[in-house]
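User: For this week's homework, look closely at the record that follows, marking any run of repeated tokens, and judge whether sequence predicts the tokens.
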Amino acid sequence: MKLKLLLTFLTATCFINQLAAQDLPSKTVWEGKIENIRIFLRISKDSLTNQYVAVFDSPDQGAMGLKVSDLKVTNDSVTAFSAQIGGGFYGAFKSGRTELAGEWKQGGTLPLVLKRVEKEFEIKRPQMPKAPFPYKEEKVIYYNTDKSIQYGSTLTLPDTNKQVPAVILITGSGQQDRDETLFGHKPFWVIADYLSRNGIAVLRVDDRGVGETTGEVMNATSLDFAGDVLVGMEYLKAHQGIDSKKIGLIGHSEGGIIGPMAAVQSKDVAFIVSLAGVGIKGRELMAMQLKSNYEQLGLNTEEVSRFDSLLNMLFDLSATYSDNEELKPIFAKKMKAWLNSQPEPFLAKLGYTGPQAYNNIDEFAARFFLPWMRSFLKYDPATTLTKIKIPVLALNGEKDVQVSAQENLSGFKTLLTKAGNKNFKVIAMPGLNHLFQHAKNRSSE
């Protein structure tokens, strides 16, 4: 589950400012490094509006096309802030406007020099499926019982007259398309292609509010998404080419939560595959993710403990107050008290000082009071996994820092054993990250 992607639930106002007097060319690319991780800032002029827009790319993390929501360029400086990730670059031109020297601010502050480059990097995706395909592909529209939600999907079906087993692919957190497109990768298309080449039908579906799927998003939780999966089950059961007794679920990240939620509501689910799924409580996982992120920003042991006190305050407020209007004055009072008790250097590392302080605090805190996050923080896998007796395969990458393999696979093993499940396997995949890519270092991408 991606912290960046959780921000897509928030409504961000987009401020794109025209460049000042001394305009840049219609397209420029700037490259720099933060601890050997490449950062690209791509600025280009929109041909329709004649205004400049920008995106960040971090190919070493698989993060591509992160939109800059606030772009300001003067004769001597550049500000490029992305609400999508809650951070950005602030710097000044050097060396005849071929270099930008400044800082990357995302929770904390790190030095960053960006140099203008002539040639953009090229990303090769050799894993992308290529035609011709030895299976049938159907673009499918189906509906829930009262037709309040339309689901847009793709069904790949082995080219045979026999009934075949099938799976539904379930995306991770955030609104994603049927291919689970993440920073240029299309992992669900790759999975569907492989399985359908090997005799298994695959249904992959746009999330609510994406592509051809409708439905309420802002107040939806994982339980609602489990209901969406069950609608897909009904569609597959009625398909004449599908063996209705051999329909399974494959969920990635949050999909590893949603799959078991759907399975305990339906006797028709034949098996579950969890990819980077969650086997510990939601509150525990979120604390691990955030603490890991801030340790990477250079917080020492004492500062991590201070940050932990902030998390516990936000977790408790989220669990106690369901009405955000009631919560606002209580949060303001508690947050002020917490800030007043912290040393200035520590707050500076978090980005809680200076002109962006209040924006950073609001953006960080707001996510804990969204319906989806409230539900996730209360999630306990024991409520589902202790009831699962169908076959389960749980795979987690050993270098995944978003959903750590050791703790989460241990949770699967403990809870499925408690369920009396005799047919499950948990595997930590060596060298793989959250997207099951080979990684040199532990990475959240």
